[in-house]
Design brief:
The complex is a heterotrimer of chains A (about 350), B (about 250) and C (about 290).
Chain A: H1 3-14, H2 32-39, H3 44-75, H4 77-83, E1 93-94, E2 99-100, H5 103-134, H6 137-152, H7 155-182, H8 197-221, H9 225-233, H10 238-267, H11 270-275, H12 293-300, H13 307-339
Antiparallel strand pairs in A: 1-2
Chain B: E1 5-14, E2 17-27, E3 32-36, H1 43-50, E4 60-68, E5 71-72, H2 80-85, E6 86-89, H3 101-110, H4 117-130, H5 134-137, H6 151-164, E7 169-173, H7 181-194, E8 199-203, H8 207-213, E9 216-221, E10 224-230, H9 231-236, H10 241-247
Parallel strand pairs in B: 3-8, 3-9, 6-7, 7-8
Antiparallel strand pairs in B: 1-2, 1-4, 4-5, 9-10
Helix pairs in contact in B: 3-4, 3-6, 4-6, 6-7
Chain C: H1 2-52, H2 57-61, H3 75-106, H4 111-124, H5 128-143, H6 148-172, H7 176-184, H8 189-217, H9 244-252, H10 257-287
Classes of the chains: A mainly alpha (about 350), B alpha/beta (about 250), C mainly alpha (about 290).
Chain lengths: ~350, ~250, ~290
């Protein structure tokens, strides 16, 4: 017989006698506890009901989107029938004579949003690169906390600050300087009000910056460390490592976060309304007042007296809804492709 | 108080993966039965079939008969009632993190709707004594959380929790593998004392443990029950060559 | 001979160039961070400065005085916001938590779960003014008057996607072995989800709700044509009701200095509320949602 077997045999023999039990058995052939548990149903019905209740609540998310779409489409029928798609490309906003052309608003939304992106994207990338790759460990937490805070400030507070701080700075200092030195471009002509497209672009930039930055950070952090190390091992400087090892791998996701920022900018209402000047005109100058789709809704919706007016406004709302949905869906897909569906950040 | 378990032609799948083949075994009541075998041999899957936990995995399927006492547990539509009669202790101690020690032990009663305060108190004390934890925690029952105990204590807490519902069978899936040797010894002592009251099935990769605590032992290999016999017989004179190879350490 | 010297000189110049580029990039990154942090500090500092002087007891207890009189406060707006947010929470939180439970406990890995999650994220990006318009069409047009109810509904449906996602995230952090323990004891599914999974994840779930609450507390656009606002005290949910962000907006664009002063104070109150919520969320997230669960 082999050695190990003998050892086991001895061990098996040693446990021949059971020591005394502590406590006592739970009473007779069937204790009250056993009886209770055996007689109790299996709550199948309750479980099914619970499941369906949870599922209905989850389904409500689809219902909400559907409800919004339904309301917008049915209530804009009047305007759609009268003006068709030309609605978005013609000018002239005349409620009295029932002529509605939404082009100035579309133009304003696009210009202010892209201006905002132009300012925000380089800065957001810079912040993301700094926080992810360069920042000393101790500073990382407080700084990222601060950017999260920036994302949480309500639009109306940004607008308030913009009216009383940003606009005077523009009116008194920045706009005249731009007009003086860059006036030859034709982008900075005309009377200076302070409010206008440039103000809207700047405040939008401040507002979308945190979201672009934090998403870019997420995307950059999901690039595996091995990529960075591989590039460093080839003798690259830190910037070269960031450029080829991280940014290149993450570029799809970064594009996604930029598009998400665009989506946010397109729909931003309060702050833009407070500084864009609210004049439905188109001008090449960035210093001129303008109007955006969200702003005209904010300003004129509660005053819309007749059905056609309301319908035209709702048609603008419908366009805003569809565009932001498409832009956001695209952006989420791109970000997801890089981070592989890691749970979204808990921030706004 | 424990009941016999009779298994006939049990087959189990994870999706297309056929993990148990035609397992037939009679587990005697009021005893401890050990199941040994190399990793992936299906012993854990088998034990999880005994309380219908296997079917919670996505794509899992079971065929065959499992009689616990006189009832075929797969004849019921819902597994919930079955699981109330059969207690399970898992490899990694898993007390409920937000509950006190008392609430943890009583959870099988309270969360199943049992309202009798006095009987619950008695059950908690009884099962904590049975799992040799009473003296260590009796002053902090409601003050300390289940998760604040040490690893060995947590596992004994899980045993108490399983015992509080007065089960007929106690299943243990490698209960001491995550614990230090002293805690392991305590758990083995426990099993030794409990087996005269309950039918215990213990999965273990530790052959010495099987030899120490179990009257009968089953050897699993690649989803088949190769041999099932009295522990002394398995370890001294096994019938099948594969069993002998495993026991002597030719493969692990 | 000279070829080798030229080559090594070229290499040195190249490495100088690369080093310079590296420093430039670092500088640009640091500069961006400073440019970003500066407005935040500027805004908050300015808020503190302008708003703090107007924050007195009257601010929190009195409604605005008629134009021309100084003093008064935004008590009606604060109370109105409270009413509207209470209505919103009673819709948004239960529905959101339930949807989150569905995602984490009943549809893990399945297609339908991905669809719900994706739709919730997309819904989060819909401009809040569009929400307001839809609720206007649904409720205000039919009832022919503005009300706190409609405002609450608009904010409530805005809360749903956020609460859903945070609840799901927190529930996913509950270790599966805990669920198995509950299953093994024969506890029914609904009891196990509520008394074990949800209870374990509760601190995180609550802070997620707080985050959603703070987010909609600052929203103005959806209230513009639902709750509409009110100059006077009103706690009747079927009537137009004042709300803090709405009032701030109206005062900010008004020509009266006194109202501007009140707007700053209101903004300070709003931003403090949000600051506290964001900090709490961070604190809970860092401490770990599950005390002691390994």
């Amino acid at each position: 017989m082999n050695q190990p077997l003998e050892g086991l045999r001895e061990v098996a023999a040693a446990r021949a006698v059971a020591p005394q039990l502590h406590g006592h058995a739970a009473g007779g052939p069937q204790s009250p506890i056993r009886k209770f548990l055996v007689e109790r149903g299996n709550s199948h019905l309750a479980d099914r009901a619970f499941f369906w209740l949870m599922a209905i609540c989850a389904g409500s998310i689809f219902a909400i989107v559907g409800f919004i779409f339904y309301q917008l489409i049915t209530r804009s029928q009047l305007s759609i029938h009268k003006f068709g798609v030309k609605f978005f490309f013609q000018t002239g906003w005349d409620p009295v004579n029932e002529h509605f052309g939404a082009w100035p608003f579309v133009y304003g939304t696009l210009v202010s949003s892209f201006l905002g992106l132009l300012i925000a994207v380089p800065l957001a990338l810079g912040v993301a690169v700094f926080l992810t790759e360069m920042c000393p460990r101790r500073l990382r937490q407080p700084l990222s906390f601060l950017t999260e805070l920036l994302a949480a400030i309500p639009s109306v507070v940004y607008g308030l600050w913009a009216i009383f701080v940003l606009v005077p700075i523009l009116r008194n200092d920045l706009d005249p300087a731009l007009q003086k030195y860059l006036g030859w471009t034709g982008l900075f002509s005309g009377p200076i009000f302070g409010v206008g497209m440039l103000a809207a672009g700047i405040i939008l930039a401040i507002m979308i910056l945190p979201i672009i930055s934090s998403l870019t950070r997420d995307v950059m952090m999901s690039v595996p460390q091995s990529q960075r190390e591989a590039v460093l091992a080839l003798g690259a400087t830190r910037w070269e490592m960031i450029r080829t090892g991280v940014l290149r791998n993450a570029r799809i996701g970064i594009v996604g976060s930029v598009i998400l920022g665009l989506g946010r900018a397109l729909g931003e209402t309060m702050a833009v309304t407070m500084v864009i000047g609210n004049r439905p005109e188109i001008s090449r100058s960035l210093l001129a007042p303008g109007y955006s789709m969200a702003s005209v809704l904010a300003n004129e919706f509660s005053e819309a007296s007749d059905d056609m007016y309301l319908s035209a406004l709702i048609e603008i709302g419908l366009a805003l809804f569809l565009v932001t949905i498409i832009v956001n869906a695209l952006a989420r897909l791109l970000v997801w492709a890089v981070t592989r569906g890691a749970p979204a950040r808990v921030s706004a | 108080m424990g009941v016999a378990i009779q298994v006939r032609d049990l087959n189990a799948w994870y999706g297309d993966n056929h993990t148990l083949h035609d397992v037939t075994i009679n587990i005697p009541p009021n005893s401890a039965t050990a199941l040994i075998g190399p990793s992936g041999c299906g012993k854990s899957t088998f034990v999880r079939c005994l309380n219908r936990m296997h079917e919670t995995a996505p794509g899992a399927r079971v065929e065959g008969t499992v009689l616990v006492g006189e009832d075929d547990i797969y004849a019921f539509a819902s597994p919930v009632g079955v699981r109330r009669r059969i207690g399970m202790v898992f490899q990694k101690p898993n007390p409920f993190p937000t509950m006190s020690i008392y609430d943890n032990v009583a959870s099988g009663l309270k969360l199943n709707g049992f309202r009798n305060r006095k009987l619950t108190d008695e059950a908690v004390e009884r099962s904590l004594r049975q799992s040799a934890l009473w003296d260590e925690v009796k002053d902090d029952l409601k003050k300390k959380s289940g998760a604040s105990l040490s690893g060995g204590q947590q596992q004994r807490l899980c045993i108490a929790r399983a015992l509080a519902v007065d089960p007929e069978v106690l299943l243990m899936d490698e209960p001491a593998s995550a614990l230090d040797p002293i805690s392991t010894a305590k758990i083995e002592d426990l099993i030794f004392q409990l087996k005269s009251e309950y039918t215990i099935v213990i999965v273990t990769h530790n052959m010495q443990q099987a030899a120490r605590v179990a009257e009968n032992t089953g050897f699993f290999l690649m989803g088949n029950l190769v041999e099932f016999d009295a522990t002394t017989k398995i370890f001294t004179n096994p019938r099948d060559k594969r069993t002998e190879d495993y026991i002597t350490g030719r493969f692990g | 001979m000279s070829g080798r010297r030229t080559a090594s000189r070229a290499m040195r110049m190249n490495s100088h160039f690369r080093a310079a580029a590296n420093h430039l990039a670092t500088g640009a990154a640091i500069a961006s961070t400073v440019i970003v942090i500066a407005p935040l500090l500027a805004i908050f500092g300015y808020l503190l400065y302008k708003g703090a002087s107007s924050l007195n007891w009257a601010f929190f207890t009195q409604p605005p005085k008629p134009i021309g009189e100084t003093g008064g406060g935004m008590a009606n707006a604060i109370a109105g916001s409270g009413l509207i947010l209470a209505i919103a929470s009673s819709i948004g939180i239960p529905v959101g938590i339930s949807a989150g439970i569905y995602l984490a406990e009943f549809s893990r890995g399945r297609m339908i779960g991905h669809a719900v999650r994706f739709t919730a994220d997309v819904l989060n990006g819909v401009p809040s003014i569009v929400m307001g318009i839809s609720v206007y069409a649904l409720i205000v047009l039919k009832q022919k008057h503005f009300s706190a109810w409609s405002g609450g509904v608009a904010l409530g449906i805005m809360m749903v996607p956020t609460v859903t996602r945070t609840t799901e995230e927190m529930l996913l952090m509950v270790p599966n072995v805990v669920r198995e323990a509950a299953l093994g004891l024969g506890i029914s599914r609904w009891r196990s989800v509520l008394s074990v999974s949800l209870r374990t994840a509760l601190p995180g779930v609550i802070t997620g709700c707080m985050l959603a609450f703070a987010r909609v507390a600052g929203e103005t656009a959806p209230l513009l044509f639902t709750a509409f606002g009110n100059e006077f005290w009103n706690m009747n949910p079927a009537q137009p009701t004042a709300a803090l962000p709405l009032q701030i907006f109206n005062y900010a664009i008004s020509p009266y200095d006194d109202w501007h002063r009140l707007a700053w104070a209101g903004a300070l109150v709003l931003i403090t509320l949000i600051l506290i919520s964001v900090s709490l969320v961070r604190y809970v997230a860092n401490r770990g949602v599950l005390k002691g669960a390994s």
